[in-house]
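re: that chain from earlier
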Amino acid sequence: MFKEFELNGVTYKLRLDTKNCIALEEKIGHSPLDEIVAVENDKIPTVSFIITVLYYSMLKYHPGTRLDDVYDEIDKYIENGGSIMDLLPIILDIFKESGFFNNPQKKAVENTKA
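^ sequence. v structure.
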């Protein structure tokens, strides 16, 4: 299970496996699910959280990716008309495809994106 995401002409497979989820949790200092719950309550996550999730979700299938590479790619994405807010549904899909939600929770996340 993974989320495919095309970024500047490159298709990435995005998935938070256990190892990278723990690394993400250590990096942000709390459970990433806290951020998702906040999104469900109409709060917008920080840019740092969005980019950090993208980075750690790339590592499973794209080892060797550096955080600076992700920064550069996001800068290009924005220069080409994308926005940080466009990435929020991708982040929610990463969590869904990574097995963080059971069926009722998946529906709640999908409803948040609608």
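The mean pLDDT is 89.
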